[in-house]
Amino acid sequence: MAKEFNVERQLFDEVMVPCYSPMEVIPVKGAGARVWDQAGREYVDFAGGIAVSCLGHCHPVMVDALKEQADKLWHLSNVMTNEPALRLAKLLTEQCFADKVFFANSGAEANEAALKLARRYAADKFGPEKSEIISFKQGFHGRTFFTVTVGGQAAYSDGFGPKPGDVTHLAYNDLASLAEHMSDRTCAVMMEPLQGEGGIIAPTAEFVQGVRELCDKHNALLIFDEVQTGNGRTGDFYAYQGLGVTPDILSTAKSLGGGFPIGAMLTTSELATHLKIGTHGSTYGGNPLACAVAEAVVSEVSKPQVLAGVKEREQWFRDALQAINAKYPIFDEVRGKGLLLGAALTEEWQGRARDILVAAGEEGLMVLIAGANVVRFTPSLVISKEDIDEGMARLERAIAKIYQ
Fold this sequence. Notes:
By secondary structure, the protein is an alpha/beta fold. It has two domains: 9-58 and 304-403, Aspartate Aminotransferase, domain 1; 72-301, Aspartate Aminotransferase, domain 2, CATH 3.40.640.10. It contains 14 helices and 15 strands. The chain has helices at residues 9-15, 48-51, 60-70, 83-95, 107-126, 145-150, 154-157, 175-181, 205-217, 269-272, 288-301, 304-327, 353-362, 385-403; strands at 27-31, 34-37, 42-45, 100-104, 132-136, 167-170, 186-191, 221-225, 249-252, 263-267, 331-337, 340-345, 365-366, 368-369, 374-377. The strands form three sheets. Strands 4-10-9-8-7-5-6 form a seven-stranded mixed β-sheet, with helices on both faces. A four-stranded mixed β-sheet has the order 1-2-3-13. A four-stranded antiparallel β-sheet has the order 11-12-15-14. Strand 1 and strand 2 (34-37) form a beta hairpin. Helix 3 (60-70) packs antiparallel against helix 11, helix 12 packs parallel to helix 14 (385-403) and helix 13 (353-362) packs across helix 14. The longest helix is centred in the C-terminal third of the chain and has 24 residues, at 304-327. The protein is globular and about 60 Å long.
């Protein structure tokens, strides 16, 4: 049996690599949109584990799926397939344009697979010189060396030696610069259909349509990183469905497992043929436990009433933020779609998003930031009106303190 001892926050500093700076509290229990720490203090969760806990904490459909699968089968390898993986793949293809699925463990891995597929397809079909990947400034695509290089934030990719080459970063929502730069050397354009980490920036209809047309013109693949926007987060099952533009490759993770680690790359049959046997793989990709939980999550989130409820909750959030802002005008605008929302700070409040996050924590509310100037909200997609009202009351108290 494991040795018993007190698990305190200082233990983090002793035993963990210091690439994170977690809050002082340690949560020990969650239910729905509420979380409790070691001292029994309760928090309302507007963060959702960074757009992961799409059904809140310990939702019965997830708990039941995990318990049931735990008694059956935990792991094989990709020498064999398994029933949960096949059921989940079928379910995902029914939700979107894709015919084929590759399972991984995270968004970064799903994006890595997407980028490798794009490069392999271009090399097979057009030759090795068609290798340029274009992505956008302030974009975020993961922390592996390839994905962090494609992501448009140098602070995350500098300082690790030579980067993977032939990656170009352009301005998001600037169609003219993309049109000017793109050529038949371009192998793929990778973008978030709503930038998350970069400040909750929505694409204009003209931009997203134009990107698709330019990809078609130059025989380049369009990759949508839907790691944060997917699985109902914007009110459509995938965000592309609300934009009227279909990608060639789509990555999904975060809320796909509702908190259980899983990612997936989705694509067409034609493109999938270029990842022949041995060209890519993942030890845990398609794990039966992860796939069983994700199957339960997708089945629940894809229900029409759940997706309609996301749009309803978006309005509740917007109305409440507007009411707070009428008393304490610190927000310039509320950006985003569905339950991926960002309250951008006014000119005089620039750089203070983290102050609001900390103050909210002191009032018993968990929120996020997206850069220094945006407070980000990515709660459970099924959060109750009561929980939203309580969370907003706590946010108002936090903002009132800072404001005064």
